[in-house]
């Protein structure tokens, strides 16, 4: 199996890698040994991850959590090579979070028959992932910004372990015809988050009818398009609240045309007003200094 792997960013505790499969006709890869805790977020394509009697069907909208100490192999169905962002946590960091978060008592980390876990992303993880790639591709990435986004992704992913359900298995035909549709839609939403996007505009961009697009999008993501975009916008706004930008500017940059509507939507999602959220996080930051 041929692949191109670039390290986008490296810290003392983790690496962010860009993985791109280059195979035209992919067969099953050689068995490899995983030494680190890692999060693999699939941007495009489809692959089967085989580890310790389990086979996980991985495609856009999923994050593969792998713990150290197991063998694995990968296989692609048909002609759907993948592109992924992989966050690899170094041994010292894994030992630290193992202690801090009591991972040794966690059902996934104590199950010796389970090397990897497949989770569905949510709009918040997708928005953080988009922000991570943007930050990593700057000429000189800001270390603290990268650290904060990686920690937020890890927290969002670990939070999804509660009430865990295996992602729905989608028919091969649906993936073959519409994986690229969902990939295009997500990219378009991320790049135009502040715009007033219509369903027709989005469906036209993806070369599909609006009615069919709505159904396909919900099948892949579990969300109606509007709700998905709303949650992305709120996550974007939450991240901007750590900056000195005025709250009105944050609302408009996040795609909200009304400050009152933004404040109400934010409070409903985060249980605090934007002002209250900013104030509580400033106090937390001062406490940890």
Note down, in words, how this protein is organized.
- The chain has 289 residues and is an alpha+beta fold.
- It folds into two domains: 3-169, Jelly Rolls; 196-288, Arc Repressor Mutant, subunit A (Orthogonal Bundle), CATH 1.10.10.60.
- The chain has eleven helices and ten strands.
- The chain has helices at residues 91-100, 107-110, 123-136, 143-159, 172-191, 199-205, 210-221, 225-240, 247-253, 259-270, 274-288, and strands spanning 3-10, 14-21, 32-34, 37-44, 46-51, 54-59, 62-66, 70-75, 83-89, 116-120.
- Strands 1-2-9-4-7-10 form a six-stranded antiparallel beta sheet.
- Residues 283-289 have low confidence and may be disordered.
Structural class: alpha+beta
Main sheet: which strands, in order across? 1-2-9-4-7-10
What's the number of domains?
Answer: 2
Total beta strands: 10
Please indicate the percent range of residues in DSSP E strands (runs of 2 or more): 15-25%
Q: Name the overall outline.
A: globular
Fraction in helix: 40-55%
First-last Cα distance: 47 Å
Radius of gyration: 20 Å
- Quick one: biggest sheet? 6 strands, antiparallel
What is the name of the CATH architecture of the largest domain? Answer: Sandwich
Q: What is the CATH top level name of the largest domain? A: Mainly Beta
Query: Residue-averaged pLDDT, rounded?
Result: 89
Q: Could you state the order of secondary-structure elements as H and E?
A: EEEEEEEEEHHEHHHHHHHHH
Low-confidence stretches: 283-289
Number of helices: 11
CATH topology of the largest domain: Jelly Rolls
């Amino acid at each position: 199996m041929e692949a191109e792997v670039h390290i986008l960013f490296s810290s003392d505790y983790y690496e962010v890698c860009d993985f791109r499969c280059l195979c035209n006709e992919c067969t099953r890869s050689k068995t490899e040994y995983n030494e680190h805790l890692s999060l693999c977020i699939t941007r495009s394509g489809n692959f089967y991850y085989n580890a310790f009697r389990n086979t996980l069907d991985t495609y856009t909208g999923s994050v593969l959590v792998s713990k150290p100490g197991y063998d694995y192999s990968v296989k692609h169905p048909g002609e759907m090579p993948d592109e992924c962002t992989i966050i690899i946590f170094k041994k010292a960091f894994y030992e630290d979070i193992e202690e801090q978060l009591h991972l040794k008592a966690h059902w996934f980390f104590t199950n010796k028959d389970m090397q990897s876990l497949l989770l569905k992303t949510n709009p918040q993880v997708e928005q953080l992932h988009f922000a991570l790639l943007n930050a990593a591709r700057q000429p000189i990435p800001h270390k603290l910004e990268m650290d904060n986004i990686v920690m937020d992704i890890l927290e969002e992913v670990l939070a999804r372990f509660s009430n865990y359900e295996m992602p729905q298995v989608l028919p091969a035909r649906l993936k073959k015809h519409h994986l690229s549709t969902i990939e295009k839609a997500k990219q378009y939403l991320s790049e135009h988050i502040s715009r007033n996007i219509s369903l027709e505009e989005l469906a036209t961009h993806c070369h599909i009818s609006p009615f069919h697009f709505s159904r396909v999008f919900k099948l892949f993501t579990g969300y109606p398009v509007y709700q998905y975009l709303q949650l992305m916008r709120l996550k974007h706004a939450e991240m901007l609240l750590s900056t000195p930008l005025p709250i009105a500017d944050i609302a408009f940059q996040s795609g909200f045309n009304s400050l009152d509507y933004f404040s109400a939507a934010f409070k409903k999602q985060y249980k605090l007003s934007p002002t209250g959220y900013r104030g509580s996080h400033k106090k937390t930051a001062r406490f940890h200094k």
